[in-house]
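BUG: 3D viewer hangs when loading the predicted structure for this chain

Environment: internal workstation, default settings.
Expected: structure renders.
Actual: progress bar stalls at 90%.

Input used:
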Amino acid sequence: MSNRIVCQFSCGAASAVATKLALAEHGSTHDVQIINAFLANEEADNRQFAQDCEA
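Structure tokens produced before the viewer hung:
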């Protein structure tokens, strides 16, 4: 059995919180992967929010 957790980060507040909680709870014991489907026509603010969350 794999110890992988995949989080779909959609550049929204709910997915940001869910990803942060998954990392806090499982980051030291599981392979937490964060994925984001980049959309060329999304708001530029979404890219900035994603960068802010990475910091």
